[in-house]
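Hello everyone,

My group is preparing for a crystallization screen and wants a predicted model to guide construct design. The compound we'll soak is 2-acetamido-2-deoxy-beta-D-glucopyranose. Before spending weeks at the bench, it would help to have a computed complex in hand. I've included the protein sequence and the ligand's SMILES below. Output in structure-token form would be ideal because that's what our pipeline reads.
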Amino acid sequence: MTEEMVPKQFAISLVCLALAGAFDNHFWRLVVLYVHHQLWILLVPTSGVVGLILQVVAMVGIMWIPMFANFNYRKRQGCIMVTGCDSGMGQATVVHFAQTNDDSKKGSFEKIFAACYNAQASKEYFEKTLTKDQLRHVLVVPLDVTDDKSCKDAAKTVQSWITNETSSKGLYGIVQYHGVPFFGPACYMPVEMYERQLQVNFLGFVRIVQNFMPIMKKRSMTPGRIIFTGTGGGPCSPCPPLLSAYMSSKFAAESFVHSLRAECYMTRNEISCVVINPGFVKPTMLVEKGIELTDKMWKICEDKQGSTVAKDEYGELANHFTKYSSLQPGTHVSEVTKAAEHALLSNVPRTSYKVGIDSKLAPFVGMMPTGMREKIAIHGIYGILSPAGTVKGYRV
Ligand SMILES: *[C@@H]1O[C@H](CO)[C@@H](O)[C@H](O)[C@H]1NC(C)=O
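Reply:
Good plan to model first. Here are the tokens for the complex, ready for your pipeline.
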């Protein structure tokens, strides 16, 4: 290998890694890296510009084959439902679709069912934010995903709207953003909080699928889409300290989706199940209400344990996390909306969307040896890789 080839190889490796990021699947990443390596050995003897171009064409060609199908969006048809519309990603998605609904190229959704925990407040928000014309497409539906009856009632409302509207093309897609971010030390946070966390973030998905999939199956047209919100890079992501409840709920949810997808395939149910994996997104409730939620958690711990032991041991760590949340730049919530749009409208949706650089890098960290992976998770928030600096009084 000559000396001037080293920068070339470096550049090609970077391109390869960047392209590999387009895939959500680690197997494919490895395949891409392997193919790259082989191509490098094979093609470099044709040195000079030709060799370089050949390599790039070969790599890009391989990468783009599965993406060719996606240059055109489908025309919008039927209705969609968005859950968790009280704030953050859900709210932004409803506003985005309502505002772009009459795009002549993309068609329009008959109705956007905005499922909200606090329907009144959300109604007021949408009335304030959207024009009358845009508002015509939005119907706020009260929904508590932890409550069976509430889910059944919401499904009834959606079904009744579709039945009333005789020309309706049915329920095409569901985008689910509902979720709560609990945060606290694993050995003190009360089990009730774990239960609540799993009720919303995990069983909420189960209830939505069981209540709404039958409505989607009634469509005779293009197969529908169900979109779930995971976290970070998915189940292989490192789990940072103090997020045991939240990460458990997200991993549980993702396992549910993987099994569901296999079941849909085997029963020729053409509904696509997609996971959006956002990294740190701003602005969201987690960041805005971080301190409030943490104080509440300490209070619950204190009531349960009869002492402030949890806060004494972990208080500074939690404060550091809050500081990290406010300093970390995060990914703007509109990036999540874009992923949701692609998942709903592209001809072939991906099985998962990693939104944000942190989310894209997480699977690489996830492939590292366990000790190293955990060190990086710690240092990312509490140590040398953290925008908040190194936490004092704890081992990092
Ligand atoms: C459908 O029509 C029935 C009867 O007119 C009405 O009671 C119901 O509210 C309608 N559903 C929706 C969601 O508008």
